[in-house]
């Protein structure tokens, strides 16, 4: 599965581009502020229906006005059969998604085009709050457990209704009216996350070993409520506290993925280069599990691959990427010796918002 065609209009500094990416490796080279990251962002938007830089849809519009569009063709066969045409468009505050000319939901886009990214902001996965790590985990669960989205939406709906009842100082009888859906869906969310992490862990151990060369590290899932209690018991035990706080304090929405090197959190005890390698291991492990479960790996975007990496880490990273079976889109300021080993796909030059292949 790969993008055989890609185009965008008025997307940030990219006035207009249209390219035919290589099925395996696409390397984008150019100076700072040339538009390389924006190009990767346009691909990410096509697969995730949102920006990986946290920007709103309106902030993605370029100088031509309050509109932008990204389109691509997703190829899934080697016989030349035309693949799915995908379009993500925003205009005057309205977003639309189309797959093969039919209006679609964002979840269908995410399901159809799995995309992962490794960029400088990914350090937030390790340094910021647990919400980032929950999103990392849930994206993987969504792609290998098809019932996860429905269960999670049931939990979110019941949680909103219970929290509204708490804010209105509703009776215990009314609170308990929402508890059945909340409890049943919470237990399922926790079980699906746990089962996914158990499948992910050995693959993750392998990638951590290859990229970081370490063994003393752990990744554990904290379910979001007290370990010694079932969720129904936790709700009962925390009812008075929830009333004071006017919200449901415990549950899967408070789950945490804890990552440690030896006895220490990775936040303050590893270098930036080690953090980048750990993030790469986390992303590549997810991609490998999706390949095993679905038969095709996600498209992988890597922004400024050499940044923050010494020669040894960069060499390890490149060696791993050479064996990656999915489509790669990588940006860099220049082709340095570490990246030479990756050449063999298509090299693009990005300059002042224009994208050209080396053959143009």
Automatic annotation (TrEMBL):
<comment type="similarity">
    <text>Belongs to the RecF family.</text>
</comment>
<dbReference type="Pfam" id="PF02463">
    <property type="entry name" value="SMC_N"/>
</dbReference>
<keyword id="KW-0227">DNA damage</keyword>
<feature type="binding site">
    <location>
        <begin position="30"/>
        <end position="37"/>
    </location>
    <ligand>
        <name>ATP</name>
    </ligand>
</feature>
<dbReference type="InterPro" id="IPR003395">
    <property type="entry name" value="RecF/RecN/SMC_N"/>
</dbReference>
<keyword id="KW-0235">DNA replication</keyword>
<dbReference type="InterPro" id="IPR042174">
    <property type="entry name" value="RecF_2"/>
</dbReference>
<protein>
    <recommendedName>
        <fullName>DNA replication and repair protein RecF</fullName>
    </recommendedName>
</protein>
<keyword id="KW-0547">Nucleotide-binding</keyword>
<keyword id="KW-0238">DNA-binding</keyword>
<comment type="function">
    <text>The RecF protein is involved in DNA metabolism; it is required for DNA replication and normal SOS inducibility. RecF binds preferentially to single-stranded, linear DNA. It also seems to bind ATP.</text>
</comment>
<keyword id="KW-0234">DNA repair</keyword>
<keyword id="KW-0742">SOS response</keyword>
<keyword id="KW-0067">ATP-binding</keyword>
<feature type="domain" description="RecF/RecN/SMC N-terminal">
    <location>
        <begin position="3"/>
        <end position="334"/>
    </location>
</feature>
<keyword id="KW-0963">Cytoplasm</keyword>
<dbReference type="InterPro" id="IPR018078">
    <property type="entry name" value="DNA-binding_RecF_CS"/>
</dbReference>
<dbReference type="InterPro" id="IPR027417">
    <property type="entry name" value="P-loop_NTPase"/>
</dbReference>
<dbReference type="InterPro" id="IPR001238">
    <property type="entry name" value="DNA-binding_RecF"/>
</dbReference>
